[in-house]
Amino acid sequence: MNLENGQINGRQLIFLIMGYILGSSVILPPGTEAGNSSWLAIFCGAGEGLIIAFIFTVLARRFPNQTAVQFNSIVYGPYLGSIVSVAFLWYIFNLGSIVTRNFTDFIGTVFMPETPTLIVGIAMIFAAAFAVYQGVEVIALSSVILVPLTVVFFLISYMLQINTFDLQNLLPFLDVPMEKFLGAAHGAATFPFAEIVVFLMIFPYLNPSKLSPMVEIAGISFSALVLSLSAVRTIAVLGNTAAIFTYPSFEALKLLNLPFFNARMEIIVGINFMTMGFLKITILYYGTVLGIAQLFGLRRYQILIIPVGILMLIFSMLNFNNIVENMEYARITYPIYALLFQAWFPLITLGIAMIRRQGGAKE
């Protein structure tokens, strides 16, 4: 039973991947443990992310018209496949709740400290629910509009602020122990690049159905470039003080001073950031409700939008007691936990499918 009739093309998929990767990375930049070499850790993390993405790209090409929930039942059988699918959907759902918490904390801390985070969360989930109800085609069209606007604004603000850069802050180069640098690079791979494993729920709706690896390479590479340039700006503007800020990239942008434009630039920046968060939450939300509907053989996934949205909001409030716990989880626990779903799940699934000669494409 086909629950989604929408179709997206390769260009839209690139923008979707970019918006998803930039997502919460614009407010919580990856690779910060590498200090003033965080920009390089991001590039290395993108390289590892490309390797992981290659694994689930081959898997998606082997089952071109099926989501992860659908090909799990083929590869593992109906019972074990359901267990694997439940675990994968839990990862997507839990990640969606964490990203929601990231942005409710960001908005509540920076813009509306007197507003309860629950109210902010309801507003974000409501906006995402509306997009999810419309389907993958509308979500993709939203990315085509929002992602280029974000990138253009980023480049304009970058050029306007470049005269305030102190490039001495980028030195000494690679002054952290190698194991710490590699840990930062791996952290950048798992957050955010390899998180596009969730697109195993979206790849079947690509038209034409033959997924090109160049699409993922383009999406990851462009995103890595934007995040690396952002890291360079943060270090060049804030120097060693970047480590004391919860949202260093936002703090760096707040220092953009335009004498001919008397307005609070951080408000525009914040709106720009939130559009990327909206895209990431929406994609995770969509993948969750679509997967649950396929798992239970429902006729329409839309009936799950409200209950899943309520649960995602509740979990976002319960996951962490404060921002510090959230950041510690992202730095220590998540790179280990996420790799199970980002790399090991698709690798084992692909290996079993190849041994059993399952799937349409046998490359």
TrEMBL record:
It is found in: Membrane. It is a multi-pass membrane protein. The keyword Transcription does not apply. Its main location: membrane. The keyword Transmembrane applies. Keywords: Germination, Membrane, Transmembrane, Transmembrane helix, Transport. One of its GO terms (cellular component) is membrane. InterPro entries: Spore_GerAB. GO terms for biological process: spore germination. The chain crosses the membrane at residues 12-32, 38-59, 71-93, 113-133, 140-161, 181-206, 218-247, 267-289, 301-320, 332-355. PANTHER family: SPORE GERMINATION PROTEIN A2. Belongs to the amino acid-polyamine-organocation (APC) superfamily. Spore germination protein (SGP) (TC 2.A.3.9) family. This is Spore germination protein KB. The lineage of its organism: Bacteria, Bacillati, Bacillota, Hydrogenispora.
